[in-house]
């Protein structure tokens, strides 16, 4: 305990902070060491409990032999597929200034989690190494300098990692209230899709009322949300999906033109449906394999926003339409953005998306919920792409 330097108003710093650094920068090694290490992390944190303040001293021993473990989380034991995930006992999250601790009710799965397993989606600094980019839950502790939230508040949150766990520490600006009319558990399905779709096609590509919008993978977590929020904003929605059943689900959510990408050429169909003009905005998850066709499917002044490379990131591209039709091509990832940038997106989402959800016009679409211990099974389902909408984990 003498290792800890305690500041009355902030989280302690600790000589063993290399444990945290190791955990952030080399998650696989941390996972290995965590099972047998004798490392002790110390923290003295100021915890707000209702109106009561109490100092709490915690000791977490990162060892399976210790009884001082804090919580359960899914650990990526080595790079690989879902089978490398293991439910382990790990240290409790530390309450840092500007943060709250959430006791997680549910966490949403995202395709990026599959990349993280394989060591291909880096955890941003300061976040735990466990997968999980979004969650919902109840605030269990609040840092002294956070004034907008209190213990007991039900929230959902955008995470840089750590959702596959019982608890997570989150910067307060990454929180959103659970929307009225949505259950605490279902709220876990909203932050990542809402922030991704709003920050790309609305905030950046300026998709507007009366325009035409194509989203690829209409039955995905992203797609099911994009269809609904675009319809809410008076947009004509086109989408692609790989089966008649999924296309029907997209129509149920409001899609106007649904295209089976396995049977039809989406460019030809878009041109047919728009009198040869094309769509104004495309949200693309396929990358290289669709790049040339996406440019062909866009109208004059069209905007292509790329958020995924499911079809690769390199290829031979025909760039002439970019000049010929004055096209804009953009791409972005949500996870790597700065705290300030994400906070801005979250505020915009609260202003523009939350009313649509609270009016019941945009709903979280949940396909299946698994227990935390079944994380590997849940990821296997995500990989097979049998689902429509979101898959959740429940600690
Ligand atoms: N950049 C960012 O910040 C960000 C954030 C979130 C998500 N994303 C990306 O957005 C995409 C969707 O994410 P998610 O978590 O919602 O994934 P998801 O639910 O697993 O969905 C993946 C989708 O890809 C579709 N797909 C596969 N091949 C296709 C093809 N040839 N044409 C059209 N669609 C095809 C699948 O449709 P079928 O099942 O019908 O084949 C499925 O709906 C992923 O690529 C993900 O990495 C990016």
Question: How would you characterize the overall build of this protein?
Answer:
With 395 residues, this protein is of the alpha/beta class. The protein has two domains: 4-190 and 364-394, Medium-chain alcohol dehydrogenases, catalytic domain (Quinone Oxidoreductase, Chain A, domain 1), CATH 3.90.180; 194-331, 3-Layer(aba) Sandwich (Rossmann fold), CATH 3.40.50. It contains twelve helices and 19 strands. The protein has helices at residues 18-25, 27-36, 111-117, 191-202, 221-232, 244-252, 266-273, 288-297, 320-324, 339-352, 354-358, 375-384, and strands at residues 4-7, 10-14, 40-49, 52-61, 71-76, 85-90, 99-108, 134-142, 154-158, 167-171, 175-177, 212-215, 236-241, 257-260, 279-284, 298-306, 328-331, 366-371, 390-394. Strands 7, 8, 9, 10, 11, 18 and 19 form a seven-stranded mixed β-sheet that branches. It has a six-stranded parallel β-sheet with strand order 14-13-12-15-16-17, sandwiched between helices. Helix 1 crosses helix 2 (27-36) and helix 4 packs across helix 10. It binds NADP nicotinamide-adenine-dinucleotide phosphate.
């Amino acid at each position: 305990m003498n290792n800890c330097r305690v500041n009355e108003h902030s989280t302690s710093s600790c000589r063993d902070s290399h444990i945290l650094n190791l955990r952030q920068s080399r998650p696989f090694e941390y996972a290995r060491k965590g099972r047998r290490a004798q490392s002790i992390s110390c923290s003295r944190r100021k915890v707000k409990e209702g109106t009561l303040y109490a100092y709490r001293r915690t000791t977490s021993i990162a060892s399976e032999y210790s009884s001082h473990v804090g919580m359960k989380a899914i650990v990526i034991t080595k790079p690989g597929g879902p089978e490398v995930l293991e439910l382990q006992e790990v240290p409790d999250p530390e309450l840092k200034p500007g943060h709250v601790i959430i006791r997680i009710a549910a966490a949403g799965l995202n395709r990026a989690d599959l990349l993280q397993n394989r060591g291909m989606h880096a955890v941003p600094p300061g976040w735990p190494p466990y997968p999980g980019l979004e969650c919902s839950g109840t605030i269990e502790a609040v840092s002294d300098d956070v004034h907008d939230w209190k213990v007991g508040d039900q929230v959902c949150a955008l995470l840089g990692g750590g959702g596959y766990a019982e608890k997570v520490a989150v910067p307060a600006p990454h929180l959103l209230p659970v929307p009225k009319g949505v259950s605490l558990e279902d709220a876990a399905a909203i932050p990542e899709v809402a922030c991704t779709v709003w920050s790309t096609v609305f905030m950046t590509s300026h998709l507007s009322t009366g325009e035409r919008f194509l989203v690829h993978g209409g039955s995905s977590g992203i797609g099911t949300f994009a269809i609904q929020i675009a319809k809410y904003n008076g947009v004509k929605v086109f989408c692609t999906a790989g089966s008649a059943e999924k296309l029907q689900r997209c129509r149920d959510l409001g899609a106007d033109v649904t295209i089976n990408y396995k049977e039809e050429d989406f460019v030809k169909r878009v041109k047919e449906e728009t009198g040869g003009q094309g769509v104004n905005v495309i949200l693309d998850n396929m990358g290289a394999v669709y790049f040339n066709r996406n440019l062909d499917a866009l109208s004059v002044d069209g905007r292509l926003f790329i958020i995924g490379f499911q079809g690769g990131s390199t290829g031979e591209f025909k760039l002439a339409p970019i000049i010929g039709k004055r096209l804009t091509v953009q791409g972005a990832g949500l996870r790597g953005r700065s705290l300030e940038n994400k906070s801005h997106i979250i505020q915009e989402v609260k202003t523009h998306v939350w009313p649509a959800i609270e009016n019941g016009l945009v709903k979280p679409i949940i396909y299946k919920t698994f227990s935390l211990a079944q994380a590997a099974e849940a990821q296997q389902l995500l990989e097979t792409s049998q689902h429509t909408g979101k898959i959740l984990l429940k600690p």
